[in-house]
Amino acid sequence: MHAIAVKQGETRPELIDIERPEPDEGEVLVKTLRVGIDGTDFEVLSGSHDAFPEGSDYQILGHEAVGVVESPNGTALNEGDIVVPTVRRPANTPSRFFENNEPDMAPPGEYVERGISGAHGYMSEYFTTPASFLVSLPESLADVGFLVEPISNAEKALELAQRSRSTFEWQDSAGLVLGNGPLGLLTLAMLADQCERTYCLGRRERPDPTIDIIEELGATYINSQQTAVDEIPTVYEPMDLVFEATGHAKHAFSTIEALDANGVGVLLGIPDDWEFSVNGGALHRQLVLQNKALLGSVNSNIRHYQRARDTLAEYPDWFLPSIMTTQCPVSEFADAFEDTPDTIKSYVDFRV
Amino acid sequence: MHAIAVKQGETRPELIDIERPEPDEGEVLVKTLRVGIDGTDFEVLSGSHDAFPEGSDYQILGHEAVGVVESPNGTALNEGDIVVPTVRRPANTPSRFFENNEPDMAPPGEYVERGISGAHGYMSEYFTTPASFLVSLPESLADVGFLVEPISNAEKALELAQRSRSTFEWQDSAGLVLGNGPLGLLTLAMLADQCERTYCLGRRERPDPTIDIIEELGATYINSQQTAVDEIPTVYEPMDLVFEATGHAKHAFSTIEALDANGVGVLLGIPDDWEFSVNGGALHRQLVLQNKALLGSVNSNIRHYQRARDTLAEYPDWFLPSIMTTQCPVSEFADAFEDTPDTIKSYVDFRV
Predict the structure, then answer these.
(1) Distance separating alpha carbons of residues A69 and A78, to the nearest angstrom
(2) Contact A100/B168, CB-based, under 8 Å?
(3) Is A289–B298 a contact, with Cβ atoms under 8 angstroms apart?
(4) Of B161, B162, B157, B154, nearest to B181 (Cα)?
(5) In the beta sheet, which residues pair with residue A90?
(6) B7 pairs with which residues across the strands?
(7) Helix (H, G, I), strand (E, B), or coil: what is residue B308?
(8) Which of A5, A83, A232, B151 could tie A134 with a disulfide, CB 3.0–4.6 Å?
(9) Domains B2-142+317-349 and B152-296 share a fold
(10) pLDDT for the residue A341
(11) How far apart are CA A203 and CA A201, in angstroms?
(12) How close A316 gets to chain B, by Cα (Å)?
């Protein structure tokens, strides 16, 4: 079968031919429908994760997938079920987090990540996985189901934020998303029901399709070239909830200044080392005197995938087609890794 | 009656003579027993809060008090009840936080703080306050009740920390307190029941009475001149829970590095502006990839005072006498504001 992989020492994806996998006991054979591409895939290509599956000189890409059960193999699933696989799998070490269904909380060393580090991804015609790592979707979500994975990260972040504010009567009236990439837009659309007023920060100038989408969602676009994150409270309003989805390390700190009293910022980006100066005294003082919170959040577990499925079903009809800009059949997979001004979300379609 | 106050333009406390206050409807008249002194009192003396009670050219000091009800004035309290007053009172503005019994979450402008900013404190022979801002104590805690206020801050911080980690099965095996002042020691003693292993960081060399107390509590003393906060994971172990009680702004950031995966740091100190350099990329990345959390926490509400009362009752017998080093009668109040190498906690005793 065909698979899209990066070979050891290479930085570009290739189409390879490998044997179709056989499911072990408890595993399901899934026929792949669509696999999305995000920034992490480019990190894998650049070698920054640098942990190929054991004994393999290539890494199959892809961690945002949707497929259809080809062989339930004695599990509770049925042939034809639409399913989304989660990303993390246990490494060869005992982990209480996997035992508790909390792979997202496992520390480095206790997990591998399919398509990212230590395990093959889902960009192949078929894949196998234990049934316990699959979330079922209604048939109607088969086309968009590969977005469950990115949305699940926003769901986890929202859960963490809400729980951290559950000691008092928190009002999340104003919500801000830093970043207008696919994760930013999916998060913003999720927040539309949550917050009375929503904002999304990006670096692009008009005309730009993401700005149109932001405004169509009823949110206010903030151009970071005109308004720095720490100026947002005076130019717009202080925020109750901030999601950072830029990976820009200065945003982790200016998020504190963007927050209203009692606000919470959740960080999702993964920056490289970067030394810079901050007014650490002012940030520390603001955190304390205004009861602010800053939370890091990575990946997600099956509970967040399930919520993401529900969120996905509730997005307005026009929204998902507007961000799913770049569909590539397997034969033209390389195009899915190209960026153009109109690209929002690219995905490989294994059905065509 | 006598009161200990700072006059406008002065930076030293004085004994003044003022009229005994009359309780309004719903207010109680309390005879003061003891009032503790902490770092905030020195900030008030230095003028950094700079908001004297309206129409007053002096500010009565003191926010850590215990007293005995002199006149219940028709409230549910009884003459002779031992009581501790909370700190925050509503400013002349509507506040949903006071309506919700959450004065600790009120933003600046919605509150005054007795003895700190905008309202007189408790360092007088009598004070009045609405009964709803009083917590009752058993007679047996009358001598130590002024410590309920500082402990209540640790209780709130612990509640915030626990709630922020309640989305998964968190293990708070290792707890670290930054700071070996009275708040640090009271927090450490509270954590002794909470964490399997506790640590306390200070700047002092042996012999020092706080180090003896730390070790008597079963905790490990960490000398910050030998081990920086960010080195603690390698020299000792990574921490599940960190309480920052130093007000040293660099500690807010190195706390992130002291934490284990999924750990939480709560900041309690209130530093001045201080610009310095951080590896913001590494801190941001650690927060995200290891699900770390950083929470600011200020003051406390009646629920936390009630918990503090319970904690106070459960401390080992030797502990409180060992930190209550400096008792001063009103006539020698000035001594309570002096610092010596053996001073841990000073308080003014209004009974003697």
Answers:
(1) 7
(2) yes
(3) yes
(4) B154
(5) A111
(6) B58
(7) helix
(8) A83
(9) no
(10) 86
(11) 7
(12) 29
- Spell out the domain ranges in chain A: 2-142+317-349, 152-296
Q: The domain B152-296 is classified under which CATH number: 3.40.50.300, 3.90.180.10, 3.40.50.720, 3.90.226.10?
A: 3.40.50.720
Identify the three-state secondary structure at position A187: helix
Taking domain A2-142+317-349, whether its CATH number is 3.90.180.10 is answered by: yes
In angstroms, the separation between the Cα of residue B278 and the nearest Cα of chain A is 5
pLDDT tens, residue by residue, A114-126 = 999 999 999 999 9
Q: Specify which residues B34 forms β-bridges with.
A: B66, B349
What's the pLDDT score for residue A51? 85
Say if the Cβ atoms of A281 and B249 lie within 8 Å: yes
Q: Report pLDDT for A172.
A: 96
Q: What is the mean pLDDT of residues A194-207?
A: 96
Question: What was the pLDDT predicted at B61?
Answer: 98
Q: Is the pLDDT of residue A186 over 80?
A: yes
Q: Is the pLDDT of residue B197 over 80?
A: yes
Specify the length of chain B in residues: 352
The whole-number average pLDDT for the span B250-259 is 98
pLDDT-based confidence at A30, cuts 50/70/90?
very high
In the numeric block, which tokens belong to residue A152?
């699940």
Rounded to 5°, the CA angle B260-B262-B266 comes to 80
Is-above-0.95 flag for pTM?
A: yes
Which DSSP string corresponds to B66-107? EEEEEE-TTSS--TT-EEEE-SEEE-SS--HHHHTT-GGGPP
- Interatomic CA distance for residues B163 and B157, integer angstroms: 10
A270 part of contact set with chain B, CB < 8 Å: yes
Residues 6+ apart with CB under 8 A from A95: A103, A106, A110, A111
Tokens, residue A245 = 């989805």
CA distance A65 to A38: 12
Which residue did the predictor score with more confidence, B241 or A340? B241
For chain A, say whether B109 makes contact (Cβ under 8 Å).
Answer: no
Average pLDDT for residues B101-123, to the nearest whole number? Answer: 97
